[in-house]
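Appendix B. Raw example, untouched.
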Amino acid sequence: MVKEKEKKQKIKKEKQQVFLSKEEYSVLEEKADKLIECNNSLLRLRAEFENNRKRLEKEKEEFVRYANCGLIEQLLPVLDNFEHGLKNLSKHDKKVATGIEIIYNQLMGVLEKEGLERLKAKGEKFDPQIHHAVMQEESEEHCEETIIEEMQKGYRLKGKLIRPAMVKVGKPVNSQQFTENR
């Protein structure tokens, strides 16, 4: 029954076919080309729209992930001052130093909960991606490119470097120096 219906529709379409002149056929071809061009343009626009939607979604996720970054960066000097104060205060008044240390640890706990992590530096191999060398010192005790001293702590926030560690790097004692022979 379905096949008979399809045969009838096919015969009906064949009867409706009209022969076109060359001019009419060329106009029809132009319109078909324009239709194909419009369809391709629409497909490109859809793809572009989808790519933009995905990019905006990714940017939104990044924004939410690092929304506290600016605030935490502003707090880093406060943490540095806390640490300097604790070093100096513990020599004079141990009770006050203990109280301030509790506050400092509480603040660090909150920041770590938000994704802040300290970078390891002292004793590590120098990595220009996360360390900022401000000094070099000859040393027999340390291997070349080993960090001797951490002058300022470095931090990451949720895996993103927000401040490199400022460090002093060791170099061999008898490092060759190139001089001009005169």
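End of appendix B.
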